[in-house]
Design a protein that fits this description.
six-stranded antiparallel sheet, 333 residues, two-stranded antiparallel sheet, Beta-lactamase, 14 strands, single chain, alpha+beta, globular, 11 helices
């Protein structure tokens, strides 16, 4: 088990020894719990310092697929585009997707309902996202106001971003924009990001090592500030962590572990039981198949990353012995 300090404004890893914290939980027990369930990394950061990291079958430089943990980048990207004047959360998607204008149901969809997964756009086949163009062309699954989890809304959002960049006279490479606008300023790097037709897979394409995913989490939890200045719209970022009417346990692309959470599917280990953590602080998370997790715990200024192999097995429902509630009790109690 490797413990190092996390220092500096850019959250650069240093080798100073960690100073313990009186309420840091049982990290060794949490590491064992994770490792017994195909875990490959566990990292706990608090106040910008690394408290604990463990790599049972990998190392700190190894990148791993985030699966649907990728989805949560979209909400933060939207907040950056609000600050840039490229979009508003309540604008109709049809302002950009002109082919939606003749359909009254599609015309009513907004960026907010799209990213809250309640616009009427169908979820699509988990793990097999359509291209941006095919996602935009798909019929709606039904009326707005119902939580429908899946990759399609994120590919639709990718196409909206692409068209807005092109209309502004910029390169329409969505990942290049996200790197330039968010990730590089935050000191965050990543591995190869899967693409389709030249564009990044927005629901599930990212590969990160634990340290860089944690850096992103700390950046978000700190208000997306660089040199003391917020580089995204503060209100839009806050909306990412505000419950939506269709799902009290989901904001805009981020899970909120609280009562009333509507899970992504019947075999998912994400459920409302994690919201019943009596006496523990509120937790938000990015989550992917195989129980990839980025937990944000603002009351303790804590960020926790857990990664695992076996994503395909997780997508088939093998992973139900994972409990966010049990894992978080070990870390946070």
């Amino acid at each position: 088990m490797d413990r190092r300090g996390l220092l500096g404004g850019a959250l650069a890893i240093a080798t100073a020894p960690t100073v313990g914290w009186a309420r840091s939980g049982d990290h060794a027990a949490a590491a064992a719990y994770s490792a017994q369930r195909r875990g490959v990394s566990l990292l706990v950061m608090q106040g910008g310092r690394l408290l604990f990291e463990d790599y049972p079958r990998s190392g700190p430089d190894d990148t791993h697929e985030l699966a649907s943990g990728t989805k949560s980048f979209s909400g933060v990207l939207a907040a950056a585009m609000v600050q840039d004047g490229l979009l508003t959360l309540d604008e109709p998607c049809a302002d950009t997707l002109t082919e939606w204008r003749d359909d009254p149901v599609k015309r009513a969809a907004t960026i907010r309902t799209l990213l809250g997964l309640s616009s009427g756009v169908g979820g699509g086949a988990v793990g097999r996202p359509s291209t941006y163009a095919a996602s935009v062309a798909q019929p709606f699954a039904g009326a707005a106001g119902v939580f429908r989890y899946g990759p399609t809304p994120f590919q639709v959002f990718g196409e909206i971003v692409r068209r807005k960049l092109a209309a502004a006279g910029r390169s329409d490479d969505v990942l290049a924009f996200m790197d330039e606008r968010l990730l590089r300023p935050a000191g965050v790097s990543h591995g190869p990001w899967r693409r389709q037709n030249g564009q990044p897979n927005m629901p599930s394409g990212a590969r990160f090592n634990a340290r860089n995913w944690a850096r992103f989490g700390a950046f978000v939890q700190g208000g997306c500030r660089v040199d003391g200045r917020a580089i995204v719209d503060a209100a839009a970022l806050a909306d990412c962590f505000r419950p939506t009417p269709a799902n009290p346990g989901y904001g805009l692309t981020w899970w909120l572990l609280r009562p009333g959470l509507v899970p992504p599917g019947p075999r998912s280990p994400i459920d409302s039981s994690a919201a019943a953590l009596a006496g523990l602080p509120a937790v938000s998370m990015a989550a992917g198949a195989g129980n990839q997790r980025l937990y944000l715990v603002p009351d303790r200024d804590m960020v926790i990353v857990r990664q695992a192999d076996g994503i395909l097995r997780g997508m088939m429902g093998d992973g139900t012995d994972w409990s966010d509630a049990e894992f978080l009790r070990l870390i946070l109690s």
